Amino acid sequence: MSDNNTLSYLIITPYALLKSRTGGIIGRTLSSPALRFSGIRMLAPDDRFVDEYIATVDTYDVPQARKDALARYIDHNIRPENRLGRANRVMLLLFESRNALRDLASVAGPLEYEVRGDNIRGTYGDFVTYPSGEVVYLEPAVLFPDDPSANNAHLSQIASLVERSPGVLENLVQFPDDAAPQTTLVMLKPDLFSSASARPGNIISMFSNTGLYIVGARLVHMSIAQAFEFYGFLEKVFEKKLARNVALTLAGVLEGDPPVFDFPVVPGEYQAMAKVLAKKNAHAEFVKIVQYMTGYDPDDLPEGFDASSPGRSMCLALLYQGIDAVRKIRDRLGPTDPSKAEAGTVRRDYGADLMRNGAHASDSPESASRERSIIGLSGGEPSEEASLIRKYLS
What is the DSSP letter of 168? Predict the structure, then answer.
């Protein structure tokens, strides 16, 4: 965190997650140029956290009716055993800026009775009262420190919860006894985060049409070592798969107008030349992927560079759980080449080329397990979010 930045948070409520409002909420925050997206994690609040959070809400300098309504909402909806009998999944989002509280407040919006749509709570939440002022219904969509003096207290409570909670909630969502749910990995790619944009949120909204549940989330700054482990197998794949393209490229160049040589080159000779160049070509393509995913050229690293250090590029990794999750996600994503993807798929709408194609998705549960372990989303890893909060509060 830069020395001049402050830190604040949003927590997307269980109801907003169930109603697939997640993408819209994330899109609103990431389209704000003032905010730096610094952390994300799925959480299942325990009773200790709920009690501590409500106690801090009780100190808010806001009208008593709003304070009571918010405390009652948290007590009834966020506990492990809640009156709705629903999984208490929430999504934590952390943001930095020179004045994170002010900048997030302008995006999240206050708890107020007026019907409006220019902020998250106005669009995705509800606050209904009788003319007498009695609260009929409250769904805030996001929890946020509505009193600025409570920001650090809430962050401390969140850090403690994160430290004692798993980062993956695969055992929280209930499925029929005879069901065999899968968990698959989706990774939104770096160019989506190169500038303030709602595109990541829009893509998450598109994936919500699968009916799957988000059970894990993490910001990934892929290291060189992780990229080699994640994508290393592709170099051999490229060597075989792209050899024909190399031969065609050679033919196109050598048989130009005028041709390079004064003698004919037969197809077998192009293939022989392609064998010599195929390995170099495959490595060059592999290097492009590593550089795109990490922000570093693996063939041009300074002496003593730590290959395990975080990369300069950022991705958003999400775990989706549900029946037939792998197929549903890949159908919604579309084929690798955006130009060949069907209308309404992620890659058709948000892909630019074979590499900058919106998102990666695992092609099997086994691949998802392997890839999760590489990027640190298996569930037992130390929390980067807690470390970020502790550093800010120290």
Answer: B
Q: Edge-to-edge, what's the strand order for the sheet holding 90-97?
A: 36-43, 90-97, 6-12, 142-143
Model pTM above 0.85: yes
- Quote the CA–CA distance of 192 and 131 in Å, as a whole number: 45
Spatial distance between the Cα atoms of 227 and 311, rounded to a whole number of angstroms: 10
Active site (annotated) includes residue 76: no
Decide if 44 contacts 89 (C-beta within 8 A): yes
Collapsing DSSP to helix, strand or coil, 261 comes out as coil
> Tell me, what DSSP letter sits at residue 246?
H
Of 101, 79, 94, 91, whose CA–CA distance to 150 is shortest?
Answer: 101
As a CATH number, domain 6-222+314-393 is: 3.30.70.141
CA quadruple 321, 326, 329, 333: dihedral, nearest 10: 150
Tokens of 353: 């080329």
pLDDT at residue 36, as a whole number:
97
pLDDT at 196: 97
Taking only the tens place, the pLDDT of each residue in 160-173 is 999 999 889 999 99
Q: Give the β-pairing of 36-43 and 135-139.
A: unpaired
CA trace torsion 214, 215, 221, 223 (10° rounding):
-130
- Which are the contacts of 346, defined by CB distance < 8 A and separation ≥ 6? 203, 206, 207, 332, 333, 334, 358, 359
224-231 and 365-375 helices, crossing angle to 10°:
170
- Which residue spans of the chain are classified as CATH 3.30.70.141? 6-222+314-393
User: What is the dihedral sign for C-alpha 253, 258, 263, 267?
Assistant: positive
Per the residue annotation, which of 76, 221, 283, 360 is the catalytic one? 360
Per-residue exposure over 67-104, b if at least 16 CB sit within 10 Å of its own CB, e if not: bebbbebbbebbbeebeeeebbbbbbbbbbbeebbebb
Which two structure tokens, joined as six digits, stand for 260?
């390079």
Backbone φ, ψ for residue 91 (5° rounding): -120, 125
